Amino acid sequence: IGEMCRYMLASKPRAEDRQHKVRMMVGNGLQASIWRQFVERFNITNIIELYGATEGNLNMGNLNGKIGAIGCIPQCLPRSLIPVAIIRVNEDTNMPIRNSKGLCVWCKPGETGMFVGTIKQNDPTRQYHGYLNQDESQSKVIYDVFKKGDQAFVSGDL
What we know:
Helices cover about 15% and strands about 20% of the residues.
């Protein structure tokens, strides 16, 4: 939705900008600065932003309309029930930061990290098939993420 909103904002303002019945927009990639201007000008206040990787096994959504938040990971659920996480990484290398047990470390709310999705090949919603290029596919997988022997797809996005 980001590009569409940007194009609409680039048009000359008109009296009719707020005379419509559109009440919701859903899509990917809306910059915070565009979001604010768009809502103010067109009065479409219910915007749902989604994030996902076509080739990966992870997604999340900003269902509460918080400007600048791509989504959230519920903090009220046990981590074992949540198939995605934001982990701490070295921002120079994008490599995971690991604890004394060699496992990845969850980010705290508001902390910058890497979005990852648990891989479980026996679960259709958690499978990762990868790319045609096997080397590229393997570069997107990390091991010993939250327990020894597990795997996760690495989004590459901070």
